[in-house]
Amino acid sequence: MQRFNKNNLIIEPLNKKRWRSDVRRDALLYVMLIPGLTYVLMFKYAPMYGVTIAFRDYSIFRGFGNAPFVGLDNFIKLFSRSAFLRALKNNIIISVLKLILGFPFPILLSLMISELIRPEVKKFVQTAVILPNFVSWIVINGILYAMFNTSSGAIPGILKSIGYAGEITNIMNQKETFVWVIVFSHIWKGAGMGTIVYLASIAGIDRNLYEAASIDGAGRLRKMWHITLSSIRPTIVVLLIFRVGEMMYAGFDQIFAISNYLVVSHADIIDTFVYRLGLEQQRFSEAAAAGLFQSGIGLFLVLITNTIAKRIDADSGIM
Amino acid sequence: MKKGVIALTILVILVSFPLASAGKSEVVKEDAPAKITWMLYGDNTPTENNAVLRALQEKLNIELSVIYVPESDYMAKLNTLIAARNLPDVFWMDGNKLDAIEFRDQGMLKKLDALLASDGQNVLREVGSSLSKAPVNQKDGIYALIPGSINYTSNLAIRTDWLENLGMDMPTNLDEFYDVLYAFVHKDPNGSGKNDTIGYVGTMAGLRTFEHIFGAYGICIDKPYLLADGTVTTYMKAPLYLDAIKYLRKLYQEGLMDPDFATMPLMSAFEKLWTGRTGVFDFQNVGTTNNWMPGRYTEPTPPTFGFTVLAGPGGSGGAIKQYPRYKYYNAIATTSKHPEKAMQLIDYLYSQEGDELTYLGVEGLHYEWIDEPNGKFALLDKFKDPATYRSDGAFVYNHMWPLVNTEVRTLNKQTQEGQAFARMNSVEYPNIIASLDSIGEYGSTLSDITKEAFAQLIVTRGNLEAEYRNFVRRWEQEGGLAFEREATAAYQAQLAAEKAAN
Amino acid sequence: MKTNEVKRMHESLNDRVVYFVICALLALFCFSTVYPFWHVLMYSLSNSKEAMSGGLFFKPRDFDLLAYRMIFKTNQIFIAYRNTILRTVIGTTLSMILSVMTAYPLSRRRLRGRGCLSMVFFFTMLFNGGMIPTYLIVQAYGLIDTFGALIFPLAMNAYNMFILRNYFKTVPESLEESAFIDGANSFTILWKIIIPVSTPALAAVTMFYGVANWNNYLDGVLYINSTRLEILQVYLRKLLASTGTLNALSGIDGLSQAASLSEESMKMATIAVSILPVLVVYPFIQRYYTSGITAGAVKE
Fold it and tell me: Model-level pTM?
């Protein structure tokens, strides 16, 4: 019995008898999986019982054995805090903005870098764009402060010297502009790291394809679109699925370092809210509930995106 | 028969051998130093076997393993150790952030009464009378120890050299203070001919930098407030709160206050003082006139300071009163194998000798006294270099805080007098010692609201009254009312108990 | 023909314009990324007081190595460096072995249960047990205060593994098939064929693991008690915070040298110290991306 996919290519027969012989044939492959599986079971799945804290009244003093089941109580408590709902709203807004504006950027950057001719220039640019990734958000916050603060900042200083007569405000203190500061500084920081994966994929593209395209009269832009971009499409899809799965996490380190009480109503995200909650009094149960909520939504989003990706191209996606 | 006797003799010898050495090893074991683990917070970088540690181990005949955790991560680590049931012998904990009562009730804190009697003379002398006030010690005995000293009070420091240049006197109330700030901004107090001085520098990174202004309204900023009818509530609901905010708004709008108060890091605020851009600073004078003097000040002649308090609609004003830290606990775990040795360690650190050792280091090696009664000393040889000094154990282990400790003894005269002055002119607030459930439930939410209110109300151009009422409403609805009920009851009970004890 | 020639000329003009725009944009972006680091380096080499006045830094103001002297004065930093380097090298090696061995089977279409197995790994990316249960597990395995605690918790990251799997997928099946016919088994294929062809992805993931190991902070705080095993990030964090306290103590005679050191300078020097090794190693790894071009010729 054979099955055909939509491109009319034969894929594996599904006879149950074949199962055993296939496993035997691939025995070595399964053996290769053993260390990874063991590791994941030992270090990732073993602690997963901790997820159940979300449904229990847990105290570090009483321990896990003495943590009575309380059902959805922790979730109800969590969702009744107006600050949590506000954090959720901000989370979604910031994540969506980061995704729409931020996801294409490393792709564009990679495409541009791959067009460079001289290898030394290419190497320099690749190193240069990675640098922000290594600098912590605390430093970046300090630099932004040095740029934008009204008393001694560089940008207000420049504006004043060119005679800007309008009102100069510190964009880091305005609720309205703050979100854009977050989104753009995030794009700037993450761009370089994103290019690593794409450039690695691009490096694997057969050079002959470009030559063939040149002969056919394709210009630079067309080559970029049809060859480079489409070759890294599988990578893009996988990374997109990951990014969508992460949408419930809008960047704790960044916002934690940079938030202040003038902008918190727009900048507080789930992670920073829960961190403050946990800092006052170790509310592990509620924190676990928030974590479970984030994970659950993330899983849901990933499954949807993966299904959509598979409809477009059966070979793509996570599974 | 003979063979039997020989065999028996051999047997006896063989058996008695291990018995004898067992006895010997037990004797050896008793002399071997006991192993003690001690966990404390701090951000110093001592080397593993520094001189102070060696001195401690020698004096107490212990082998001391110190777990030294960065302050910002201390509670996280302690929480994991608690959950893992893997506590060190001696450790510190913040009773405000940890449910010490449950800690005790689950049997993890050692009962200290007997140990104190046998090995804790210094501790009893320092804090014996106040130990029972700590919440965790109110059930059936002592389970944790508290510091002997209280935190530093703040002083409002104003540059007297600038005042002299301007021919002005030290301000004693809000109006005079306003005039001084105005002059500091517009009248060139440092005689430079340039517009290089700014007004009041305060930051939300350290709300205590606004202490004295609120003190003039009888309010302790970021602390509970006692209303006339006996209710304990947030300082945001104090009747004169909005007036205090209006005073700050005036300063803000007229450019007499640094506009970045909501975002400025504390170090940046210090730097404005050090570089001579501001002439007013509301902070612990241990910094202003002792530790930073003269090295941190960048001007060729260091500034001179005077201290004052500001009177206002709320009374004669002053700093926030510092109460004893009844929830700053040091404890011994029940799992400790050598509790007496642990108590000896703690006791030694409560003594003057132990505090001196852990603060200044080993006398004769790291430093020597020049004028001991007046707290003057000099560093020796290579320890003049700060990194070397600190890595050999100075300033690291002094975590028991006896009342008159070495740090206080070595302050200069102006600073000591300033502290006395500030303590005499403090504004009180209802200091509730017991742990409140509502703080556990809503504490962080409520704190966020009051901080947001502070920032927004100072800068807003909208309807101040309406926004204020909005914040108050939010505070009340999100747990504030529950806090009021619980705090008021707890405070009344506390007052009654104090009365009964006296 | 004429139209073709014109077309080609237009194309090349078009191409040149596009190329110019690309270069300009990249130059601008590179400046924005390089300058902050330059700023950090210059600030750290400047005299504290001079630097405090703020502004842009193109060269050090009043060259001063005090901040670096403070960092390297004690023995502890060398211990911290040693631990972190060991951990990064050993940890990354282990991570790569685990990840490659897991990614390869999952990249083969013929593997039964591939979807489910992938999900097993992917699930760990979304759900985790939390700080305390993980600690209890690490404790149960006897790893607390041992070198293992610095390696095993970070050993495999599903994200990186999937990147490798994805890249392995693009290796043509024909290469594998011909090797099978020649009598090779999966291990040989992995080692002799797949790996050499995948250097770009391998280099990228090595970089990711390396940086993660190098920068990781929390494990060093939670799992390690003794100073013998202290890692660089923890040491630097303490040093940075203590400079704040040190400034508070600088009134004491003899510590005035420290008085001339501001926390800001210390921060900058700390950052430089923790980043510099990464930047030194990076160009070596980066070489493997470009080697992929020649590797491309191996594929048909």
Answer: 0.78
pLDDT score, position A128: 85
Question: Which residues are A56's β-sheet partners?
Answer: A69
Collapsing DSSP to helix, strand or coil, B308 comes out as strand
| Amino acid of residue B207 | L
Backbone φ and ψ of B226, nearest 5° = -100, 115
Which of C160, C157, C140 shows the shortest CA–CA distance to C149? C140
Angle, helices A284-312 vs A270-280, to 10°: value is: 160
Contact A150 B259 (CB under 8 A): yes
**In 10 A of CB B170, how many CB atoms?**
14
pLDDT exceeding 70 applies to what percent of chain B?
A: 93
CB neighbour burial string for A156-172, b if at least 16 within 10 angstroms, e if fewer: bbeeeeeeeeeeeebbb
- Whether residue B147 contacts residue B332, with contact meaning beta carbons closer than 8 Å, is answered with no
Is B239 exposed, middle or buried, given 0-12, 13-18 or 19+ CB atoms closer than 10 A? middle
Q: What is the DSSP letter of B257?
A: B
Residue C228 is nearest to which of B42, B48, B70, comparing CB atoms? B48
What b-and-e string marks burial along B128-149, b requiring 16 or more CB atoms within 10 Å of the CB?
eeebebbbbbbeeebbbbbbbb
Could you tell me which of A263, A246, A254 has the C-alpha nearest to residue A189? A254
pLDDT confidence band for B423 (50 / 70 / 90)? very high
The residue count of chain C comes to: 300
Which of A 210-229 lie inside 8 A of C, CB atoms?
A: 217, 219-221
Q: What secondary structure, in 3-state letters, does B57-122 show?
A: HHHHCEEEEEEEECHHHHHHHHHHHHHCCCCCCEEEEECCCCCHHHHHHCCCECCCHHHHHHHCHH
> CB contacts < 8 Å between A and C, how many?
265
Contact A110, A202 (CB under 8 A): yes
Closest CB to A281 among B440, B452, B454 = B440
The dihedral of CA B226, B232, B233, B239: what is its sign? Answer: negative
Of chain B residues 107-126, which have a CB less than 8 A from chain A?
108
If pLDDT is split at 50, 70 and 90, which confidence band does A273 have? confident
Considering only alpha carbons, which residue of chain A is nearest residue B83?
A: A60
Closest in B99, B443, B455 to A61, CB measured: B99
Going by C-alpha positions, the residue among B104, B62, B112 that lies closest to residue B87 is B104
Residue type, C49: K
Better-predicted residue by pLDDT, B244 or A168: B244
Identity (one letter) of the amino acid at A145? Y
- Cα–Cα distance measured from residue B433 to residue B491, given in angstroms and rounded to the nearest whole number: 8
Q: Give strand pairing partners of B224.
A: B234
pLDDT of amino acid B407? 86
Among A63-77, A217-231, C143-157, C249-263, the range with the most confident prediction by mean pLDDT is C143-157
For residue B140, pLDDT over 70 is answered with yes
Least confident among A270-279, B184-193, B337-346, C111-120: A270-279
Residue A165 confidence (pLDDT): 64
Alpha-carbon distance of B403 to B271, in angstroms, equals 31
Top mean-pLDDT range of B5-14, B404-413, B457-466 = B457-466
Q: What is the pLDDT of residue C251?
A: 46
pLDDT of A292: 86
Looking at residue B206, the DSSP 8-state letter turns out to be B
Distance CA(A144)–CA(B265), nearest Å, equals 13
Query: What's the whole-number mean pLDDT along residues B233-256?
Result: 96
Q: How far apart are CA C99 and CA C93, in angstroms?
A: 10
CB-CB under 8 Å, C227 with B47:
yes
User: Is residue A204 scored above 80 in pLDDT?
Assistant: no
Question: What span, in angstroms and rounded, lies between the C-alpha atoms of B75 and B63?
Answer: 25
